Amino acid sequence: MKILVPVKRVIDYNVKVRVKSDQSDVDLTNAKMAMNPFCEIAVEEAVRLKEKGIATEIVAVSIGPKACQEQIRNAMALGADRGIHVECETFPESLQVAKILARLVEQESPGLVIIGKQAIDSDNNQTGQMLAALTKMPQATFASAVEVEGDDSLKVTREIDGGLQTLKLSMPAVVSTDLRLNEPRYAKLPDIMKAKRKPLAVMSTDELGVDITPRVTTLKVTPPPARSAGVKVETVAELMAKLREEAKVIS
Amino acid sequence: MSILIYAEHDNKHLKSETHKLVTAATQLGDDIHILVAGLDCAAVAEQAATIAGVKRVMLADNPAYAHQLAENTADLVLDIAEGYTHILAAATTTGKNFMPRVAALLDVVQLSDIIGIESQDTFVRPIYAGNAIATVQSSDAVKVVTVRASAFDAAQEGDSVSVETLATVIENTQVTFESDEMTKSDRPELTAADIVISGGRGMKDGEHFAMLERIADQLGAAVGASRAAVDAGFVPNDMQVGQTGKIVAPQLYIAVGISGAIQHLAGMKDSKVIVAINKDPEAPIFQVADYGLVADLFDALPEIESALGS
Ligand SMILES: Cc1cc2nc3c(=O)[nH]c(=O)nc-3n(C[C@H](O)[C@H](O)[C@H](O)COP(=O)(O)OP(=O)(O)OC[C@H]3O[C@@H](n4cnc5c(N)ncnc54)[C@H](O)[C@@H]3O)c2cc1C
Ligand SMILES: Nc1ncnc2c1ncn2[C@@H]1O[C@H](COP(=O)(O)O)[C@@H](O)[C@H]1O
């Protein structure tokens, strides 16, 4: 079984972004970039399925500017067998990414697509669900456990607001990863070297026939309302008094 | 403008998110309809029918919708979508699960987790874990939107409208429900509570969360957690507050043994009053706290408990 893993290049999760002074966007100049953490979890899950002998090939896909090839190489260092870079000047919208991925699914016929639940830049949480709808594959989002049963069936435990839910899906299917699915490994130096020689195909959105003209216009991007530090209290008694008398949030 | 709201419920009770979505919808137009899909959930539809401003309630009551599976839910919404200019659902795990499918099948974008409405096509939403706020305009004919309920006030109750029953049954056979394991608690829900008290890695283990629970019971509060506390297995996943967990905005948020990583702040920094208890005076949580107490939580919590008891 082949597994397709879309990986997005995003700002490193440790970096606190700033808004440009002209309010046109966030300022990513010289910001440290990395693979979206949920995509790292997706790659790790695919690699584990390969180590168990369930998956035979892992294909990592990234869509966006040339620099996205770094994240594809990173996925290959972690165990992906080959990469596909769909090159475009900017990052397309989630619906467009889903359409591009749908074309790749047609070409590659994977048994599973393991995708991050959310990109930490747009915080959209859409692409996997859209891909499933467009390709008519069943979906299991926010996965915390994935169990492949035989050739064509999958059991997925999902993290939902009230607790956990377990679904059974036929394959091919789309699974989106939540934080507790696994703990991703780090790439080892020899694997990073090896990844440089793994095959990486480059395609254009035209070739795939997907229009990436934006449908959403960003009118402005502003900093969130600032929240300033308040006071330090010395004792619990003082804290309780403040909450009762000053903030009036407890009685 | 005709607006369809997908009701958030557990087959028995309508959740407060739906009241908040009605408030959001009134900013878009006055032809507001609610869809209740589930199993044995007629009571939920009756509750939806009494929200002020709602013109029409539709009920799809069938085993196919019992667990809100994304495939069936999205197809049901699509079945009735024609004529609506806006389709709204709460940005809960239910809404996040099926709404992007609705958008994709209508070939429109989805606007996720909006916190403000500027006009019929322009919405405000946080990006980058809430470190930036974007105002975005969609050129699509239908706006498919998930709403951060905590950003809107709940609509009032009003006169009851009648409930129509939908006979549509759409069932996808590629996916079936196996089981669920729901967290049981008598405390208020995290996203609905006026007071939330959350514990982090500093709580050391799951047993110590009982200290927070006792205080929560005295205050009528909900109990939340940081990712680190959930990852370490102290408490269940549905207690995680943050960028990728639940977003809360209570009157009072008490963070205990939580450092204040940006991903955690993203889920609670719109709370009215924030209290932080941490033994590290440099912990970033103090930068957003209205009241900071530098103390060992194992000393402070019992003191708070007895102060509330007296
Ligand atoms: C993609 C991604 C998504 C994430 N999403 C979320 C999310 O939704 N929610 C979330 O919370 N995190 C999230 N995180 C994790 C986040 O980055 C932090 O790792 C996490 O919030 C840390 O949790 P913590 O504050 O409990 O633990 P720590 O950072 O370890 O802090 C523990 C704190 O407890 C204090 N402490 C210890 N002992 C005591 C004591 N006896 N008395 C008083 N204080 C004490 C310490 O001083 C310290 O400040 C996410 C991370 C990533 C990469
Ligand atoms: N430009 C992209 N390239 C590759 N994968 C992407 C891209 N955009 C989104 N994805 C995938 O879709 C997931 C969810 O993204 P989103 O729906 O935008 O929050 C990410 O974790 C990625 O796995």
Automatic annotation (TrEMBL), chain A:
Record carries keyword Electron transport: yes
Swiss-Prot/TrEMBL cofactor(s): AMP
Keyword flag Transport: yes
Transmembrane feature ranges: none
InterPro entries the UniProt entry points to: ET-Flavoprotein_bsu_CS (IPR000049), ETF_a/b_N (IPR014730), ETF_b (IPR012255), ETF_beta_N (IPR033948), Rossmann-like_a/b/a_fold (IPR014729)
Gene Ontology BP, a term: carboxylic acid catabolic process
One Gene Ontology MF term: electron transfer activity
Protein keywords: Electron transport, Transport
Residue runs in coiled coils: none
Residue ranges of domain Electron transfer flavoprotein alpha/beta-subunit N-terminal in the record: 23-212
Function: The electron transfer flavoprotein serves as a specific electron acceptor for other dehydrogenases. It transfers the electrons to the main respiratory chain via ETF-ubiquinone oxidoreductase (ETF dehydrogenase).
Subunit structure: Heterodimer of an alpha and a beta subunit.
Family affiliation: Belongs to the ETF beta-subunit/FixA family.
Protein name: Electron transfer flavoprotein subunit beta
From TrEMBL, chain B:
Gene Ontology terms, MF aspect: electron transfer activity; flavin adenine dinucleotide binding
Binding site for FAD: 201, 226-227, 240-244, 257-264, 278
Domain Electron transfer flavoprotein alpha/beta-subunit N-terminal span(s) in chain numbering: 3-181
GO biological process, one term: fatty acid beta-oxidation using acyl-CoA dehydrogenase
Keyword annotations of the record: Electron transport, FAD, Flavoprotein, Transport
Signal sequence range: none
Annotated InterPro entries: DHS-like_NAD/FAD-binding_dom, ETF_a/b_N, ETF_a/FixB, ETF_alpha_N, ETF_asu_C, ETF_asu_C_CS, Rossmann-like_a/b/a_fold
Lineage: superkingdom: Bacteria
Cofactor annotation remark: Binds 1 FAD per dimer.
Cofactor(s) named in the record: FAD
Keyword DNA damage tagged: no
One Pfam short name: ETF
SUPFAM superfamilies linked: Adenine nucleotide alpha hydrolases-like (SSF52402), DHS-like NAD/FAD-binding domain (SSF52467)
Family, per entry: Belongs to the ETF alpha-subunit/FixB family.
Role played: The electron transfer flavoprotein serves as a specific electron acceptor for other dehydrogenases. It transfers the electrons to the main respiratory chain via ETF-ubiquinone oxidoreductase (ETF dehydrogenase).
Record note on quaternary structure: Heterodimer of an alpha and a beta subunit.
Descriptive protein name: Electron transfer flavoprotein subunit alpha
Organism whose genome encodes this protein: Alteromonas alba
